[in-house]
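Incident log, support desk, overnight shift.

02:14 A customer reports that sequence design results differ from what the structure should imply. Their input is reproduced verbatim below. On-call engineer (initials T.W.) acknowledged and began investigating.
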């Protein structure tokens, strides 16, 4: 077993211990080389269960949080998923292995281009990218079966909830300050939602507009 295989096995065990037990989610994580999505300086730490810095002052999320959020979406193979915040593309790649189509929006052009290159290297052809303001979603492609938000909204993301199907699921960090609540919104089929708080998290804030300089 190679060093990478050993580190991956250790990571998967840690995720199971923390409650990420969905076999499909664990398989998607196993098949997605996290070291492809990290900066060169952090390659040796790619398989550690922690968040790491990436370009544009952003981060690649802790694998446990990636697994937890993905599991909370209860994805189905035919699902159309909207992701707000492409970032490195790691979470996007995992979503793409579990759904039919992933629409992902990124406000940093540099990050979007880098992520597109990674998707190409992995042969992931069911991802559609957009350079834009994630806070307003992607109205032209709505409604979506599932929505994942990978940046913290200050309050309930009403604009995004409107783009969810009646029985859809949205997972997002919500709250001001350095610590937020990871919330799961499940549609009741009649325009309402039940809300479940999964845990406390630390995400970069969901910002308006696009970053024109990056």
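02:41 Re-run completed on a clean worker. Output:
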């Amino acid at each position: 077993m190679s060093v990478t295989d050993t580190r991956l096995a250790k990571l998967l065990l840690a995720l199971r211990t923390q409650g990420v037990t969905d076999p499909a989610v664990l398989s998607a994580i196993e098949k997605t080389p996290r070291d492809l999505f990290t900066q060169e300086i952090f390659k040796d730490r790619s398989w550690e269960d922690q968040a790491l810095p990436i370009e544009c002052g952003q981060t690649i999320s802790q694998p446990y949080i990636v697994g937890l959020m993905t599991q909370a979406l209860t994805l189905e193979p035919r699902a159309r998923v909207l992701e707000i915040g492409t970032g490195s593309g790691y979470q996007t790649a995992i979503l793409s292995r579990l759904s039919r189509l992933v629409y992902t929006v990124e406000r940093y052009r540099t990050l979007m281009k880098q992520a597109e290159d990674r998707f190409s290297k992995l042969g992931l052809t069911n991802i559609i990218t957009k350079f834009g303001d994630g806070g307003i979603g992607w109205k032209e492609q709505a409604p979506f079966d599932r929505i994942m938000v990978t940046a913290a909204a200050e309050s309930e993301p009403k604009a995004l909830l409107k783009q969810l199907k009646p029985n859809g699921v949205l997972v997002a960090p919500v709250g001001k300050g350095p610590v937020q609540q990871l919330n799961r919104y499940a549609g009741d089929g009649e325009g309402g939602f039940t809300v479940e708080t999964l845990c406390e998290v630390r995400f970069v804030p969901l910002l308006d507009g696009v970053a024109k300089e990056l």
